[in-house]
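Revision sheet: structure tokens.
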Amino acid sequence: MDLVFSSAVELAAAIAARKISAVEALDAYLAQIYAVNGAVNAVISLDEDGARERAKKADAAQARGAALGPLHGVPFTLKDMHETSGMKTTVGFPPFADYVARHDSPVVSRLRAAGGVLMAKTNVPTMLSDWQSANPLFGRTSNPWNLQRTAGGSSGGAAAALCAGMTSFDVGTDMQDSIRLPAAFCGVYGLKPTEHRVSLAGAFPDPGEAARSVRLMSCLGPLARSVEDLSLIYQIIAGPDGNDTDLAPVPVEGMPKLDLNTLRIAFAPSFPGFPVAGDISAAVESLARQLQDAGATVEEAKLPKLDPHDDLEQGGALIGMMMEAAQPEPPEEPTPVSRWFEALARRDISILAWDRFFENWDALLCPVAMSTAFPHCEPGTPIEVDGREQSYWMLPAYGAVFNYSGHPALSMPCGLDRAGLPIGLQLVGKRWSEEQLLGIARTIEPLTGGFRRPPGY
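Predicted:
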């Protein structure tokens, strides 16, 4: 058994069957971290002593016949934004360099209660504010497929750690493609659930216990090396928790087994006015043909009659209003409340248009981002896509559309481009239908090749 590249489901089963111990699983991951993290720089704030103590307790609990959770003894990491008792949460921001929360966030509590062994945090851009993961506290994360290229952001450390076998899973945040883009760049899986499906309580360091301002478009979701793992972690962390009052009381269910012959898949090689690399749009078209050949109902999508650029601008405006509310002192000319409600009304138009689209389709297949992993650069530097410079700020456009609408979306690896870099494709589904979307992804997974270990790892 190749421990560090096994799935979380496989590790949990091996530990439950006493084929390996939790300490042995932890030692394997620690050895991998020491071997490869120096070059990749994805894992930060390593808590080796604490993790070893937790792994020993997991083995002792099993020895005395205690009930085992679904992650019993499985080592994992968390993006450096979850509040964790006993471990620093910095978001790469120097004023938070020594911040340690008094309590675990609800997501962290659920993962620990499921038996998971938290080892470390993973790197992020400063305040989660870029699509590359670099900050003054921990430096820059590189892509295991090519160290001269970015792992993406803001969950870049999580995606790179998974790709390089340094963790079994991670949980990121996604306000503008921040789970899906790095998952695509590193060739792993990432799920952005429906908005208000996973608790945002404690999802950002809050030393002053200020009012929570980020209440829209941002989602927490898992990154993993298989659809099965995405489903397991999602089921553990989703649902009302008594802290985040925005959460919908929608039942969290298991991933269904589906037949390709019953699926209705729309596909879009690009969106109007959005740039995309030819290798990515070709991958969308190729997978669509394979799905059709396998018996699914497949058609090129007639997308909702919306201006996607306007959706991006409106989404950015909403984010700006939320960030304004988070400032310790209000601006001299604060945004009128009427503009907030106007922005919400405009957003409703997009949500309802996509809801109507998904009345006829089980899922939409489309790009995750306009390019594969690009060379490290200063934020704002134009990105070359098929020989043409494109705006840096268009990097997350394909994913951010569904942050604005709130629909669940996941990134799944689908081969390599001509430069040998992973291509990630996006599947989007009906709101509140994560289980169905995951089931579709699992049905498609054999056609995509799934996760591939990068050369040298």
